[in-house]
Design goal:
Layout (H helix, E strand, L loop, with lengths): L20 H10 L14 E2 L11 H9 L8 H14 L3 E5 L2 H12 L5 E4 L4 H9 L3 E4 L20 H11 L7 E4 L12 H14 L3 E4 L3 H11 L8 H10 L3 E5 L10 E5 L2 H14 L10 H13 L3 H20 L12 E5 H4 L9 H13 L1 E2 L1 E3 L1 H4 L10 E5 L7 H16 L7 E5 L10 E4 L3
Parallel strand pairs: 1-10, 3-4, 5-6, 6-7
Antiparallel strand pairs: 2-8, 7-8, 9-12, 11-12, 13-14
The chain binds pyridoxal-5'-phosphate.
Length: 453
């Protein structure tokens, strides 16, 4: 059967507003062609990010009412702790307000000047927190992970030879831990195989180094393993997820992804000493260890979210609906990063509008056209985000991130139609020029203008 059934009924609805082309044109001009500066109420379908934008279930909302707001030892904390322990097997479980808070604490404990920390691809907040500690962040994804058309089933894998080479080049004493991001967000939401994780574990054992997961999308990664890895198809996703965590010595998690909540994070350790240091830092900036910067109700919602995310009906719907968008675009002639990732589709903007050179922001030209034409908000991941000062990124991409349990198949069909209509008239897309930019993270606030095609 071809139709994807959303495995839920809709109980509460959140109206989205149709706008006219004139209204959107005005909004776009006012925002200086920067979609971060457009109000959410002027957006029809918002694919800016999948982080914290998901819909909660009726059980999660029930948990919100049940939330125990005691300062210490709240019932909600125990429920959260029990659920995370069941899924991961870790004993030392610290709640944090979101993923980057876990990262900040981890790298204050493990980072520092002169240290080098490898990952398949560091997510931008992970890299920023490592660099903030004075350490260096190194990306060691396999070569296929950088080629948009490669259909490697596990493009998020780390290159084991490169990891060994890093150990011999910089010396084990300078590598405090090895980290791997599942799924590899910066590399297109591509999964990492169990075989690769076991091989990384073996390298860590050989050099006596801890192995940490950036496990924001652990459930999506576990589902890809079930679907794609030899010998894994008969296992429960929860069982695979448990093995992923058992291979590691710790993990950072943003619960805004596979925690199915709008705010929350987790920091996990096997080692008691490390956990004790982290707990002290947690108290300093996040809060007492039984709430970690969250309300009791948030812990309830997280506990339930982590349980629901491992339901196989949910994961099947999630992964196939993202793939559906990707395959429809491909069959319409639009080059995307293949194969479709777990949480987002990435359009190759250079292939889409080859008449616009990277310095004139082809990805931004596409997302402005998409907003103007259909009220859809996507994000540029290319020269606007990573360029400037003589730097040029490897790829010019447009990311369509899919919030969890929010949009239906007809919303996605509308997105496909809109993109294919723009693609049909792609030679009319206009180059952009930056007219105003801040010194750092310019994509959030830069203003641009359209030049004649
Ligand atoms: C979102 C994300 C983070 C950071 O989490 P926040 O909750 O946004 O602070 C870290 N790593 C990866 C892979 C992510 O996707």
């Amino acid at each position: 059967m071809k139709t994807i059934i959303e495995p839920f009924r809709i109980k509460t609805v959140d109206p989205i507003r149709m706008t006219t082309r004139e209204h959107r044109e005005t909004a776009l001009q006012r925002a200086g062609m920067n979609l971060f500066l457009i109000d959410a109420e002027d957006v029809l379908i918002d694919l800016l990010t999948d982080s914290g934008t998901g819909a909660m279930s009726s059980e999660q909302w029930a948990g919100i009412m049940r939330g125990d707001e005691s300062y210490a030892g709240a019932t909600s904390y125990h429920r959260f702790h029990e659920q995370v322990r069941t899924i991961t097997g870790f004993d030392h479980i610290l709640p944090t307000h979101q993923g980057r808070a876990s990262e900040r604490i981890l790298f204050e404990v493990m980072g520092g000047p002169g240290k080098v920390i490898p990952n398949n691809n560091h997510f931008d907040t992970t890299r920023a927190n490592i660099e903030h500690s004075g350490a260096e962040a190194v990306d060691l994804v396999i070569d296929e992970g950088r080629i948009p058309t490669s259909r490697h089933p596990f493009k998020g894998n780390m290159d084991i030879a490169k990891l060994e080479k890093l150990f011999s080049d910089v010396g084990g004493e300078n590598i405090p831990l090895v980290m791997v991001t599942i799924t590899n967000n910066s590399g297109g939401g591509q999964p990492v195989s169990l075989e690769n994780l076991r091989a990384i574990r073996a390298v860590c054992d050989k050099h006596k180094k801890p192995f940490f997961l950036d496990a924001c999308r652990f459930a999506e990664n576990a589902y890809f393993i079930k679907m794609r890895e030899e010998g894994q198809s008969q296992r429960d996703v929860a069982d695979i997820a448990r093995e992923l965590f058992e291979l590691a010595d710790g993990a950072t998690i943003s619960a805004k992804k596979d925690g199915l909540v709008n705010i929350g994070g987790v920091l996990l350790f096997r080692d008691m000493e490390m956990a004790a240091q982290a707990r002290n830092l947690l108290i300093l900036t996040e809060g007492f260890p039984t709430y970690g910067g969250l309300a009791g109700r948030d812990l309830e919602a997280m506990a339930q979210g982590f349980k629901e995310v491992l339901h196989e009906d949910y994961l099947q719907y999630r992964i196939t609906s993202v793939a559906y968008l990707g395959e429809k675009l491909l069959s319409g002639g639009v080059q995307i990063v293949e194969p479709p990732g777990g949480h987002a589709i990435y359009i190759d903007a250079n292939a889409f509008c080859p008449h616009i050179p990277p310095k004139n922001l082809p990805g931004q030209a596409i997302i402005c056209a998409l907003y103007r034409h259909a009220g859809i908000r996507a994000v540029e991941i290319g020269s606007l985000m990573f360029g400037g000062e003589g730097q040029a990124p490897d790829m010019e991409l447009v990311r369509l991130a899919i919030p969890r349990r929010v949009y239906t198949q007809s919303h996605i069909d509308y997105v496909v139609e809109a993109i294919l209509e723009i693609y049909a008239e792609r030679d009319k897309l206009r180059p952009l020029e930056i007219v105003e930019e801040p010194p750092q993270l310019r994509h959030f606030t830069a203003r641009m203008k359209e030049l004649d095609a």
